[in-house]
Design a protein that fits this description.
The protein is of the alpha/beta class. About 35% of the residues lie in helices and about 20% in strands. The protein is built from 9 helices and 9 strands. Helix 4 links the parallel strand 4 and strand 5.
């Protein structure tokens, strides 16, 4: 199973995939709109918009590049929210998925920790939630999110999670934003319930960065075990979490 749309093995250009090299930090971004059931079935991905930023030297360039990537995410978030008619002040639930005890799977927790809210204000419209994994709680994540959406009258949801990749050079350096929601655990073949507009009743956007890779990406042997990210994964996950949270704070404030 692949998480990144451009690792589908398909000729994406025939589906309208567009990629552009940017002027700074050897960064590129790409866009694909899966706007029909036919495209969805042929690609094996849900309908929606897929936006990817690739920054292969992200951690070499450092903080200046972090803010640049964050600004790109901010602009794209603003576009998708505008298209959905979601103005500032609408109630949003930011959900950090993953296992916070595993460095490569705690991207959601890093973003959760850095999202700014004004919990004591009656006008607070930003809510955040970090549910942990089913094996730790015994509670299905999608069910919990649905309860919060109903009880808090949430207008839309943003989901954050670590992804898998088949390309070692993309570990921690590709950021994917989609309007199609997310299925917890899909990249490691542990499928939870789909979290999307159809199941939740409100628009659900997702942001993910790959920090895990299948071992068969190296030797071609079919097996399901994963090789986790390099030894500096903790620092890289923290940096990616900061980048995403900074973008969201800019959009939501």
């Amino acid at each position: 199973m692949y998480d990144l749309i451009d690792e589908s093995g398909k000729d994406l250009k025939s589906f309208g995939y567009k990629i552009k090299e940017l002027e700074k930090f050897s960064t590129s971004h790409a866009f694909l709109n899966i706007d029909s059931l036919d495209k969805s079935k042929r690609l094996g991905m849900s309908m929606g918009q897929y936006y990817i930023i690739n920054s292969p030297y992200l951690y070499d360039y450092g903080v200046e590049c972090y803010y640049y990537i964050s600004s790109l995410l901010t602009k794209q978030f603003e576009k998708v929210l505008k298209k959905e008619g979601l103005k500032k002040g609408k109630k949003v639930l930011v959900v950090g998925l993953g296992n916070p005890d595993i460095p490569s799977d705690r991207l959601g927790k890093e973003v959760f920790d850095n999202i700014e809210i004004d919990a004591l204000s009656k006008n607070n419209n930003i809510f955040k939630f970090c549910p942990n994994i089913f094996f730790s709680t015994g509670i299905d994540t999608a069910s919990m999110i649905k309860i919060f959406i109903k009880e808090l009258s949430i207008d839309y949801c943003i989901i954050i999670d670590s992804l898998t990749t088949s390309n070692i050079s993309r570990l921690g350096t590709s950021f994917q934003l989609t309007t199609s929601g997310m299925t917890p655990g899909s990249g490691v073949n542990r499928f939870g319930k789909k979290i999307d507009k159809q199941s939740m009743g409100v628009p659900c956007f997702s942001v993910g960065v790959p920090f895990m890779i299948y071992s068969n990406s190296f030797d071609g042997v079919e097996r399901s075990d994963l090789i986790l990210s390099p030894k500096d994964v903790k620092q890289n996950v923290e940096s990616a979490g900061f980048i995403i949270a900074h973008a969201l704070n800019e959009v939501l404030k």
